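Thread: "does anyone have the structure for this chain?"

Original post by V.I.:
We have the sequence but no experimental structure in hand. Need at least a predicted one for the grant figures.
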Amino acid sequence: MACIALDGQEIEALGDKTILQVALGAGVYIPHLCFHPQLDFLSVIESLERVYQGGKERTGKEGEVFEGCNLCLVEIEGQEGLFQSCKTLAQDGMRVRTDSPELKTARQENLANILERHPHACLLCPQVEGCDRKVCSIH
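Reply from O.Q.:
Generated one for you, tokens below.
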């Protein structure tokens, strides 16, 4: 068991859980997309060399691993940088901040990057159950 502080609120984490799992279990909201219950854990998806979006070809590096949505970023006291709460395990004594101007800016930039390359709404799509997430059936 680990005891962590989320925005000053002491929370017990049972077992090996990520900061995001602990936060959601305690009713503390941290923005997230790739940990959405209707989606597979997206960090295992690899990119294709070529996809088509709105009739336009987009190329990239085939086989690159998706690094997540980066909306669940948090700050950890005593450590430099921002951390993905969906991948960072809660550790005893950890002091986590989920809301700051730096976090808001980073999340907005990451969301803008997602929307720029992915304008369709997968979560609302009627084809979500059978989608291969490679070719959009709506566009």
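V.I.: this helps a lot. The radius of gyration is 17 Å.
O.Q.: and Residues 101-117 form the longest helix (17 residues).
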